[in-house]
Amino acid sequence: MFIIGELINGMYKKVAEALLEKDATYIRALAGAQVEVGAQALDVNCGPMSRDIVGDLRWLVENIQKEVDVPLCLDSTKIQAIEEGLKGARVKCIINSSSADKEKLDLYIPLAKKYQASLIVLTMDKKGVPGNKDRRLELAAQIIEAAYAYEFPVQDLYLDPILLPVNVAQNQLFDILESVKDFKSMTTPSVKTVVGLSNISQGSKERSLINRTFLVMAQSYGLDAAILDPLDGELMNSLITADLVLNKTIYCGSYLEAYKKSKIK
Ligand code: THG
Description:
Layout: E1 2-5, H1 13-21, H2 24-36, E2 41-44, H3 53-67, E3 72-75, H4 79-88, E4 93-98, H5 102-114, E5 118-122, H6 133-149, E6 157-160, H7 166-169, H8 173-184, E7 192-196, H9 207-220, E8 225-228, H10 233-245, H11 255-261
Parallel strand pairs: 1-2, 1-8, 2-3, 3-4, 4-5, 5-6, 6-7, 7-8
The protein binds (6S)-5,6,7,8-tetrahydrofolate.
(6S)-5,6,7,8-tetrahydrofolate (THG) binds at residues 6, 9, 11-13, 43, 45, 75, 96-97, 120, 160, 162-163, 194-196, 198-199, 202, 227.
């Protein structure tokens, strides 16, 4: 499982404050702490309160990479902000994200190629988030077709079935799991798959339990990557153990420690 730390997001009050005050020390510490416990990439999102998304994303990118050298997952709906982040980054980037609309793909795929970045595409379009797995598959096919047309490597393409909160779309969760498996079977080599894990428990109690239960299930459906809270130790232990059961890592008596010592490389 490729672990993308979710905590540098202006959705969190402290991050929004740090952005406002340009508190680089706080942001750098948050980057370091996530990588320390096993994050292999960091999501970077200015949040809904930012008044200067382009400048804020650039500032975040510049300061985070003073602390860590993992790939950065540039999370914005504003393509100018993403390009500014790409320009400022000396590490590999993941563009987060495009929708499946043709006019968006025509902008984002060439951008990803230009900067040799990976690209996350959400399986949604102007008509909204799909209500079933057939529609997700249809959109996935359109996205893959566009990637082929641009000769964009499918291994650098992450499809996101859009994980919805259990308290609003409980009946969608099984379809989302099956979509992960469906997407993986569409191409050779396979496309990659990713979800924003914490979405599932927004507005619920027992958030950590819901997150880690779904994550383990999604791992067994072939999920490649997740944007998650790496400081949630129980979640990380479940992730590591599921990778072990799925024969992704070698078993030894103290596999949890061994895995953590290796910083989940
Ligand atoms: N897909 C892709 N990118 C994404 C998402 C996705 N990026 C954003 C998001 N979804 C993933 N990141 C988060 C980060 C935080 C939370 C959920 C998803 C979260 N935050 C608390 C909340 O809203 O309750 C904030 C609480 C606080 O203020 O402390 O849950 O799906 N490609």
